């Protein structure tokens, strides 16, 4: 195919075949398998954390732990759920701006804030759980080793949960660099 | 509002189809992106004031959605039990289908920003209009389009 034929081939391409009924289905979020999956994941996570908050006090002897450990655990769990809910909303509404570049910059800023918030709340929630259980323990050498293992696992989990957000930020940044005007450099 | 929206999208769905073919290479990913673009158009529709052409508005939303959404992290091979029938390529002749595939394969070798610029250029938008849609300067649109045309000439020769 010659370059000159590019435009004519472009014009010929893309004859639509979806009818209005199919298009209508696509305007309903419940018919989007990917969005549904993300929503179900969030709901399951939120339910598990709420159940944990309801039962932890009796189930894990909350009364015997210091007040600060109890409060830290509750605040960390709630902020963990809120940040993930906000994250879901951010991903659902990626277009904010009158042109492509502005929209990408706005979305990238939101993603950056989300990536940091996910990092902070995951660390906070993980640390709160460890501190809660460690707050009334008489430490021995073996227990210190277990604690170290838990901290390492926490670091790995925090990295995994925020990795996708930072990957998204990087992806948008690459496109913004591609759009960057280099003609006057 | 819903009826008017569906009519617009049905009449201009070729735009969505082309954007999906430019930004995704498997049929499943293209279908997912098509759905996502229709949803984003529906969400943006209440703010659409007819100040710009329908096609301009659709291109802006479709390109934006294609750039910011991420494909699933999996590599899939498409196995078919038989040779695709003619409907697979929307009733095109085989030669047209082949040309179309080559065209989109060539475009997919460009980076994401370049793909959006060449799509608007091929759709006969002026440099000024492309600048308004993308947010880069008119002069730079000209520079970029020349570079992209050179790249495509090398790929297609």
Write a short abstract of this structure.
Chain A is 76% helix and 0% strand.
Report on the structure:
The complex is a heterodimer of chains A (185) and B (157). Chain A is mainly α. Chain A contains 6 helices and no strands. In chain A, helix 5 (100-134) packs antiparallel against helix 6. Chain A is elongated and about 80 Å long. Chain B folds into 2 domains: 1-79, Rna Polymerase Sigma Factor, Chain: A (Orthogonal Bundle); 110-157. Chain B is 68% helix and 0% strand. In chain B, helix 3 crosses helix 4 and helix 6 (112-122) packs across helix 8 (138-156). At the A-B interface, helix 1, helix 2, helix 3, helix 5 and helix 6 of A face helix 1, helix 2, helix 3, helix 4 and helix 5 of B.
Q: Can you lay out the helices and strands and say which pair or pack?
A:
The complex is a heterodimer of chains A (185) and B (157).
Chain A: H1 6-12, H2 20-26, H3 33-59, H4 67-92, H5 100-134, H6 141-179
Chain B: H1 2-11, H2 13-23, H3 27-44, H4 54-68, H5 94-108, H6 112-122, H7 127-134, H8 138-156
Q: What count of domains describes the coordinates of chain A?
A: 1
| Mean pLDDT rating of chain B | 85
CA radius of gyration of chain A: 24 Å
CATH homologous superfamily descriptor of the largest domain in chain B: RNA polymerase sigma factor, region 2, helix turn helix motif
What's the order of the H and E elements of chain B? HHHHHHHH
Indicate the CATH topology of the largest domain in chain B: Rna Polymerase Sigma Factor, Chain: A
Largest sheet of chain B, in brief, is: none
Count the helices of chain A. How many? 6
Poorly predicted parts of chain B: 75-92
Largest interface: A-B, 49 and 65 residues
Percent range for β-strand residues of chain A? under 5%
CATH architecture of the largest domain in chain B: Orthogonal Bundle
- Tell me the distance between the termini of chain A: 35 Å
- Tell me about the largest β-sheet of chain A: none
* H/I helix tally of chain B: 8
Q: Which class do the helix and strand fractions of chain B yield? A: mainly alpha
How much of the sequence of chain B is in beta strands?
under 5%
Note the run of SSEs of chain A as H and E. HHHHHH
Structural class of chain A: mainly alpha
In round numbers, the mean pLDDT of chain A is: 88
């Amino acid at each position: 195919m010659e370059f000159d034929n590019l435009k004519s081939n472009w014009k010929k391409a893309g004859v639509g075949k979806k009818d209005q009924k199919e298009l209508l289905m696509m305007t309903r979020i419940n018919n989007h398998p990917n969005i549904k999956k993300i929503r179900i994941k969030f709901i399951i996570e939120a339910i598990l954390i709420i159940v944990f908050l309801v039962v932890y006090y009796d189930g894990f002897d909350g009364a015997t732990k210091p007040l600060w450990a109890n409060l830290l655990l509750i605040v960390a769990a709630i902020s963990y759920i809120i940040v993930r809910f906000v994250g879901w909303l951010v991903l659902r509404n990626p277009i904010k701006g009158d042109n492509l570049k502005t929209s990408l910059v706005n979305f990238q800023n939101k993603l950056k804030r989300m990536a940091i918030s996910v990092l902070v709340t995951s660390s906070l929630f993980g640390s709160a759980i460890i501190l809660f259980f460690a707050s009334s323990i008489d430490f021995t050498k073996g227990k210190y080793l277990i604690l170290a293992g838990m901290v390492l696992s926490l670091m790995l989990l925090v990295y995994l949960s925020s990795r996708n957000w930072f990957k998204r930020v990087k992806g948008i940044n690459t496109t913004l660099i591609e759009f960057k005007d280099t003609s006057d450099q | 509002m819903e009826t008017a929206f569906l009519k617009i999208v049905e009449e201009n769905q070729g735009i969505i189809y082309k954007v999906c073919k430019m930004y995704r290479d498997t049929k499943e990913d293209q279908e997912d992106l098509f759905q996502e673009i229709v949803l984003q158009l529906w969400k943006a529709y209440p703010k659409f004031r007819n100040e710009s052409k329908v096609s301009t508005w659709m291109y802006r939303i479709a390109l934006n959605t294609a750039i910011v959404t991420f494909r699933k992290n999996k590599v899939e091979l498409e196995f078919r039990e038989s040779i695709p029938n003619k409907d697979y390529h929307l009733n095109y002749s085989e030669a047209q289908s082949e040309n179309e595939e080559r065209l989109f394969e060539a475009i997919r070798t460009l980076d994401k920003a370049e793909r959006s610029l060449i799509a608007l250029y091929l759709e006969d938008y002026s440099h000024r209009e492309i600048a308004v849609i993308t947010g880069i300067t008119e002069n730079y649109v000209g520079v970029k389009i020349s570079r992209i045309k050179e790249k495509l000439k090398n790929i297609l020769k």
